[in-house]
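Predict fold of 2-isopropylmalate synthase; 477 aa.
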Amino acid sequence: METKSLCLNLTIDECSNKVLFAEADKDFVDVLLSFLTLPLGTLVRLSNKNSFLGLDNLYKSVEGLTDEFFPTGTCREMLLRPSHAAEIKCLDLLVNVEGNRALSYYICPKDCYYELLTSCANAQCDCGSKMSRKVEVARSSSRKENTEGVFLKRLTRFIITDNFMVIPSSTQTVMNLLGCARTSASIVVEKQVNVGLSEMISILHQSLISENALTNVFLIRENDNLPEKKNSTFSLIAGPKLSSGPLLDIVGIKLIVDKRKNKVVYAECNQDFIDILFSFLTYPSGFVINKLNGKSHIACLDNLFGSVVSKPMADCFKTLESKQHLVYPRIPLHYRISKFLIKSTEAKRMKYYMCRTPGCDCNEVSLDGNVLCKCKRITNKRLKVMDPRSSSYGFVSDATYIVTDDLVVTPLYISTLISMIAVEDLVEVPFNVSKIEVLALLEAALGSQAVLTDAFLTTEETTKNGISSIEDDCVLV
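Predicted 3D structure, encoded as tokens:
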């Protein structure tokens, strides 16, 4: 597919060599907004596992586990390259950070009775064959070039700050931004840049590690030292509140705690807790920011989310559904797990159609039935989307695992434990994980390098889970 680029007008403070703000049309802002639809695992992958999030280690752990720890070969692929509910909509972006490519699915190479469709290559069809025939979603022709946006209305221009606040363009907005920066119009310069796929991926990466994303991409040369994400002291922005009702949905784990340092060394757990952790990779970033009340510790994305729900942007979206894709994104179909403790809505089941004509070699599926195939016959065979995990309701196999404080996941092997428990004053703490703790864990995974410690040991409420009485109720390792 042809590589496209977008135009961005930068306003730069010459004295500080910093982008004060940029101006762009709906096409560029549509791409920025699409960041909110991307699963966290996609953010990690596009950052080459250098996102400075605790999720980097989770992603590497999925890569490192051997096949025996996944019920099917497709479970690993679902975590490393997760789908999202807006991916068909994002095909119309002029620059798509996932690549300007067709959206691919797979069907059985045989003309079998089951007529199944899956997003994962070589998933097993109900007839026993591998679903290896690749098909592509036919592109919609409803989007009018240069007039209709993906999420936004046409013919609207926007101001974007260095830390991703988005506001419709106006004279007052520019004056306010110059005033806030204490910058005179006489010492600013304008610079026009073209933004293609590589630049947009760089913008995404910088948005995860810096509050000066545009400056770092367009003004700091490659041979300069880019600022790294500061490892400042982490604390939960909104500590979990103790539930007053019975905890019906919990997952039990064991925390191995260094009493002297008040630090979790590792957690011992079964597959339910690992499924919870790995499922973080499948959560759309907008879903996560929503669940964390707009404060995920990723400042640029938090600002982007805040812009979407702000009053100045209220009339800028094409439809209510377009806005909901960003602030209430749904979990992709077949990505739920048996212990899904965070309330969510699963994406609606899409309808896919193919041609039934014997011998037709068309490799396109349509979102509409009764359309004309390339062979001039009617496309009316409706395909059933299957769960590529087969009969499993999770991502990993039944086993005992350990999770380090920085979210490295490995199977429990005695040889691994020997070096980890060679510390005095270790205690084993039984710990119940409910929705409250999962949200704390998710927040810590986005901003801490000591995730389990910061999620489970540092708040009064979680201490009541069993850690406050550490000397009396715990078993020495």
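The longest strand covers residues 6-13.
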